[in-house]
């Protein structure tokens, strides 16, 4: 049980109430993670602007980065949320588990993205020349590299916030890789 309270609509500023209303309209609810951002007056709006920025990555590619980063950072909240979003973007449960493992057998370009993301997160950005060359050889460019690193940063913010607070996860739990691969 977490000692961190999730703000309700009534607990937040008028500006954040407006954001809550938009989220509820778009998603049907306000995810606990987004609600928690309102502990800082501007953080939710700032985070959503970062998360919704234009990028060269497709929705599927973004979910690969989100799932790999969340797996490595051990964030159960984000693994659950992005398992749901990954399914909405056309990945199967088995594909999502494979993605979270950092290697993708069903698409060579996606595999290069997963491996590059794994290298960046595991090595705090200090990746080998080979990892970067493989990323570029798969068809990504320097713009994709920047967009991937920005997305890793975006997801790491949420991963760390939930790992610190451990508030309730309001998405169906993502299966553990260990259980799924047993």
How is this fold's topology laid out?
Elements: H1 14-27, H2 32-37, H3 43-51, H4 59-72, H5 76-88, H6 93-100, H7 108-122, H8 129-137, H9 142-165, H10 177-180
Helix pairs in contact: 4-5, 4-7, 4-9, 7-8
Short description:
With 182 residues, the chain is mainly α.
Describe it for me?
This protein has 2 domains: 9-51, no CATH class; 59-180, AhpD-like (Up-down Bundle). It is globular. The protein is 64% helix and 0% strand. α4 packs antiparallel against α5 (76-88), α4 (59-72) runs parallel beside α7 and α4 crosses α9. By secondary structure, it is an all-alpha fold.
Mean pLDDT over the full residue set:
96
Anisotropy-based shape: globular
The CATH superfamily of the largest domain is known as: AhpD-like
Poorly predicted residue ranges: none
How many alpha or pi helices? 10
List keywords for this structure.
AhpD-like, about 65% helix, 2 domains, mainly alpha, 10 helices, globular
């Amino acid at each position: 049980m977490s000692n961190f309270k999730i703000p309700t609509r009534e607990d937040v500023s008028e500006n954040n109430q407006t954001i809550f209303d938009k989220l509820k309209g778009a998603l049907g609810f306000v995810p606990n993670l987004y609600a928690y951002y309102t502990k800082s007056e501007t953080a939710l709006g700032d985070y959503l602007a970062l998360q919704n920025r234009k990028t060269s990555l497709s929705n599927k590619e973004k979910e690969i980065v989100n799932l790999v980063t969340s797996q490595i950072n051990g964030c159960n909240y984000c693994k659950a949320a992005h398992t749901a979003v990954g399914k909405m973007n056309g990945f199967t449960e088995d594909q999502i588990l494979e993605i979270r493992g950092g290697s993708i057998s069903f698409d060579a370009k996606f595999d290069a993205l997963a491996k590059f993301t794994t290298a960046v997160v595991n090595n705090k950005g200090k990746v080998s020349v080979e990892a970067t060359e493989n990323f570029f050889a798969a068809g990504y460019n320097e713009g994709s590299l920047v967009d991937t690193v920005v997305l890793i940063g975006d997801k790491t913010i949420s991963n760390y916030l939930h790992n610190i607070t451990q508030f309730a996860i309001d998405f169906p739990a993502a299966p553990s890789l260990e259980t799924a691969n047993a």
